[in-house]
Amino acid sequence: MKKEIKERLEYELSVIISMGYAEYYLIVWDFIKFAKDNGIPTGVYIKEVVMDSPAMEAGLQSGDVITAVNGEAVSTVSAYNKRILALEPGEKYTVTVKRQGSNGYSKITCKVKIGILE
Fold first, then answer.
1. What is the torsion angle, in degrees rounded to the nearest 10, for the CA atoms of residue 71, residue 73, residue 78 and residue 84?
2. DSSP structure class, residue 76
3. CA angle, 49 as apex, 48 and 50 as ends, to 5°?
């Protein structure tokens, strides 16, 4: 390993430890590993789809797990919001979701049009 990389890694780890986040990262890693080992998708869970919303019009459903926006993986709500807020009202984008069915999860791609909240 190059000296610069090792020094940067040691610095980043020291910041994580000093801020008390080491346990948090270990717990999150355990959750992600469990999900992957058991075929459970990771991403942004859709709790509710509002009637007549752009999400409903696109075919998104409660219980879907958003895994990508315009082909870029998303694993947190903040990552999802960042990608969506960069788009213009009226613009269409692709959302990839995992939807649970009787035979496990299926990958589904939907086209969603950015709406304006009134």
1. 0
2. S
3. 115
One-letter amino acid identity for 105?
Y
Rg over CA atoms, the chain: 18
pTM: 0.70
Long-range contacts of 89-94 (CB under 8 A, 24+ apart): 89/114, 89/115, 89/116, 90/114, 93/69, 94/68, 94/69, 94/70
Which of 49, 52, 56, 54 is CA-nearest to residue 92?
54
Q: How far apart are CA 118 and CA 115, in angstroms?
A: 9
Task: Give the tens place of pLDDT for each residue, 12-70.
Answer: 888 888 888 777 777 777 888 888 898 888 899 999 999 988 888 889 999 999 999 99
